[in-house]
Amino acid sequence: MDGDPPGAAVRMRDVARVAEVSTMTVSRALKHPERVSPEVRARVEQAVREVGYVPNRLAGSLSSSRSNVIGLVVPSIDNSLFASTIQGISDVLRRHGHELMIASSGYGAEAEEAAIRAFLGQRVAGLILHDTTHTPEAVAMIRRAGIPVVENGTLTRQPLDMVVSYSNHDAAMAMTRHLLRLRYRRIGFVTLPLAANGRSRDRRRGYAAALEEAGLPFDPRLVLEVPPGLAAGVEALDRLLAAGGDPDAIFFAGDVLAIGAALECTRRGWPVPGRVAIAAFDNIDLLGHLVPPVTTLRLPRHEIGRRSAEVLLDRIEGRAAGPLTVDLRFEIIHRGST
Description:
Blueprint: H1 12-19, H2 23-31, H3 38-51, E1 69-74, H4 83-95, E2 99-104, H5 109-121, E3 126-129, H6 136-145, E4 149-151, E5 162-165, H7 168-181, E6 187-191, H8 198-213, E7 223-225, H9 230-242, E8 249-252, H10 255-268, E9 277-279, E10 296-298, H11 301-316, E11 324-327, E12 331-333
Parallel strand pairs: 1-2, 1-3, 3-4, 4-5, 5-11, 6-7, 6-8, 8-9
Antiparallel strand pairs: 10-12
Helix pairs in contact: 1-2, 1-3, 4-11, 5-6, 7-8, 9-10
Domain HTH lacI-type: 10-64
InterPro entries: HTH_LacI, LacI/GalR-like_sensor, Lambda_DNA-bd_dom_sf, Peripla_BP_I
Keywords: DNA-binding, Transcription, Transcription regulation
């Protein structure tokens, strides 16, 4: 017996066949990898990926049934921006007798895939994924599992199932338009690294679209990618002002970056917006208490969590069916920094 539920699309014996080992060896390699040779372990792991096998961690119990647990994958547990969304999800699930299990992807698609595999092995009732870009293996696993999924990091034209969010592209475009209406013309743009962050890429595209709409050129000297943190905001301020682009405003697509730059301007005695205007993306409390307070975007993070859980439960409990897109929009908060 390999512990797979009746009717499972992919069984442990399929892994054994591809890896050319026994099902007992597959079981041992998955449960106690230290008990098999590295060569056998590598063959089993490769076979698992090839056939899309999800180990059943509930074998021997009521494993053919779904649990009352919802799996959530966020890019980072350290980042406080996700706390409000997580709280919104948890509040709704708890009221309806469901529990929340959380994993961090570390902004990596492969780590997200591993978390999804683990959740499916626990027979979760549904998934909530912050990211909207996934590995082909992750997508295939979700399709085979047949459980409802909500993506909520940004609106996407081709969601896996349901999406509840706002458009990062439209939000960045709206803020850039706002600065243009205030007669800023040399607008710098600072974002987190683009390579592993689709939301950052969407924000830069929104910024570029607003410039093009206004007939202004995209000047590479005015655009930076920096790591997260206050110090990176200071670094971005220095680099943009020294690069020759002569920015009259800087749009930081990250609130901590904007705070770092604003505090540095205060330290140097530079007037804001007299020396340079500063705008942010997100509305953590501190932005409203700086001198001057910083213009930013208010994003409905708690509401995103609440609605994500609600639409997921509607699907689980049979009250709704089919694809769904919920756009919760955003709001520009104009303050003294611009």
